[in-house]
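Support reply, case 0932

Customer input (verbatim):
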Amino acid sequence: MKASVKGRFDRIDQKLDNLLEALSEYSHEQLNKPPANGGWTAMQVMHHLLIAENYSYLYLKKKLSFNPELKRAGLAAGYRRFILKAYLMTPFKFKAPKAVSEDALPAVSKLAEVGEQWKANRHALRAFMETFPEEHYTKELYKHPLAGRMTLDGMLDFFEFHFDRHEKQIKKTLK
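Our regenerated output:
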């Protein structure tokens, strides 16, 4: 795995560890209580993030299972990555894709179980990416549902900025 990608993984893993540690201070009831003005519980937001990352991993596995011809990433992929980052940094609410929306989120869940599953998924993705040939890092390998095709760095940008966006939502929900 490229050193820069390993460093990015280490950073997003540390962010997850920090969030799980912070949330361990809250009771099961607090984590599963909807905000007064409606919306997702803290645990539903956690599931949303977990599911989004897992679908990304499953997409990569499926995509690479049939040895496709991959297009080299260019300016368009960089632009899509920039637009996605800007989109995720705005304070505006957006409707989540159906696969990661309210219908896919459990009403109640346990923090420890979600944390274990999320860490296991991240570990599996990291192990999978360690097998990638060097040239995969410059290809349009990942497809975001809104932004389209981008590199693995673009996927990790999505993970990080999506996480940051929803971490704020979790903290707001628990106030």
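We compared this against your earlier run and they match. Two observations from our side: The domain at 3-174 is CATH 1.20.120.450 (Four Helix Bundle (Hemerythrin (Met), subunit A)). The first helix runs from residue 3 to 23. Please reopen the case if you see a mismatch on your end.
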